[in-house]
Amino acid sequence: MYIEREPILYLLLFLISIKCSEIKQYYVDRGKNLTIKCPLDHSDVMWVREGRENHQASRSTVLKNGSLFLETVDEEDNGLYTCSRENVVTDDKVYMKVIVRTVPPPLVNVRIFPSTILAVIVWEVNGTGGYPIMNFTAQYRLAYTDNKWIPILPNHIMPNSRQIDVYGLHPNTTYEFRVWATNQLGRGRKTNVLSTTKGVFTEEAGAEDFDTRAWAVAVGVVMGTLILLSMGMCFLLYQECRLPTDFQIRFQ
Ligand SMILES: *[C@@H]1O[C@H](CO)[C@@H](O)[C@H](O)[C@H]1NC(C)=O
Ligand SMILES: *[C@@H]1O[C@H](CO)[C@@H](O)[C@H](O)[C@H]1NC(C)=O
Ligand SMILES: *[C@@H]1O[C@H](CO)[C@@H](O)[C@H](O)[C@H]1NC(C)=O
Ligand SMILES: *[C@@H]1O[C@H](CO)[C@@H](O)[C@H](O)[C@H]1NC(C)=O
Ligand SMILES: *[C@@H]1O[C@H](CO)[C@@H](O)[C@H](O)[C@H]1NC(C)=O
């Protein structure tokens, strides 16, 4: 009986130890203030930010009751924080993780695949910023101008999309495209890419001319073959109709 209970006891102890060493996580939106309570319940505490040269966040203050106050957080405040009693190094370290939620990071691998009058914009995401992406937005305009940006429909591209078609472009023209992601905190930074559409009289157009000529030649060849074949058939039929008579004549 004891032997059976022991493993369960160990498991419970193990779970409790995991629970105790669990890192408490603080999620906070960029631009908000954050107060982190020191679990030691002491007012004489020292806060340390791990992996920082000065071990202190820039806009942080230790409050009278020992809590740490982070003002107007940004990505820089992401990280592990610990508090301990002042001048006591024997305490177990308790870690608190601060995770700052932001607008989506810029899209990566944004590429344009242009044709003569249309183009395909393709992108990849590099994280959501902490909140799911609500939609993507893409726009374009003539390159090297201050023209108004032209929206690419639909205005709000579904969050599972990774590409969009752009229609009504002019051939042999350089355009500037930009695309970005939006989550509930707002718009991510825009990624701009230049791309030139193909000219009408490029090799492709030449290939089309060639295709037409090749087609005409092929049709001609087929028609000629058919005519020759039917002529041959007629000749053979004519021969077949005549041969027996010839033979008959010869054998008789
Ligand atoms: C953050 O704290 C500062 C100083 O206490 C205050 O002026 C500001 O209004 C606070 N911001 C928010 C978003 O609560
Ligand atoms: C510490 O004080 C701040 C205000 O000064 C308060 O917002 C916070 O709740 C306090 N924390 C504790 C653990 O009492
Ligand atoms: C993706 O985001 C990480 C930071 O979260 C950054 O270090 C990395 O450079 C980004 N990748 C690209 C391709 O920009
Ligand atoms: C797209 O995101 C914007 C946030 O800028 C939001 O207002 C809009 O409702 C979203 N559209 C769709 C279709 O989700
Ligand atoms: C594209 O336009 C440039 C001038 O902008 C011109 O020199 C070039 O010949 C054009 N190419 C084609 C294939 O139309």
TrEMBL record:
Q: Which InterPro entries match?
A: FN3_dom, FN3_sf, Ig-like_dom, Ig-like_dom_sf, Ig-like_fold, Ig_sub, Ig_sub2
Q: Which GO terms describe its biological process?
A: neuron projection morphogenesis
**What's the domain of life for this entry?**
Eukaryota
Q: From the UniProt annotation, give the residues forming the signal peptide.
A: 1-23
Recorded hits in SMART domains, A to Z, give: FN3, IG, IGc2
Q: Which Pfam families match?
A: fn3 (PF00041), Ig_3 (PF13927)
Question: Which positions fall inside the Fibronectin type-III domain?
Answer: 103-205
Tell me the ranges covered by the Ig-like domain, including all copies. 7-95
Provide the alphabetized UniProt keywords.
Immunoglobulin domain, Membrane, Signal, Transmembrane, Transmembrane helix
Q: Which PANTHER family match?
A: BASIGIN RELATED, FASCICLIN-2
Protein name listed in UniProt: Uncharacterized protein
Q: Which residues cross the membrane?
A: 214-238
